[in-house]
What does this fold into?
Amino acid sequence: ALSFQSTKSLSIGEGGAVLASTSTLVEKLQLFRSHGMGNEKYFHHLLGHNFRLTSYQAALGHAKLQRFDETAMELRVRYHYLKEMIEAQELPIHLQLPIPGALPVPWGFPIVLENVTARERLIKEAAASGIEIRPFFRPFASMPLYQAQHFAPSPVADHLASTGLVLPLHTHLSEKDLDRLVNLMAHSHP
It folds into this structure.
């Protein structure tokens, strides 16, 4: 599945795409994304949703896709610059690095801080400086909606959710912006 949400590398605001390997799955997904309706209008074959992109979103996505290689390279350059700056400062921050040999297209810059207090301090100082930093996703087991599912304990996911952050990373960030972000991290640690 691909996400086109506003913070992602190929952003068209919202929506996404699903890649399928069989025609049966494609047909079921097409039903699901169109209120469960097939060729016959207003006859629902299954409980579906309205997951179709608008024509405007599709056109925007198509135009952005034409220059996606350039966008991906710009994001990688910013990612590596930020990584090198953080490593040079020797900050007590753990980086989530890609698998060797992989060539990811980053949509954010994930970091893990030493504890919850350091995480909360950085979020507060970033917000005061007008910088949005996102927390890591919380495990499903920690949400009341999913408690009835009786998920197995997930101590690693719990730890990451309480100490992890995603720093902003997009093509409009200058080296000056990235330096400011690193300086903020350096000054937020005691």
In short: The mean pLDDT is 90. The CA atoms of residues 124 and 130 lie 10 Å apart. The first strand starts at residue 2 and ends at 3. The first helix runs from residue 23 to 33.
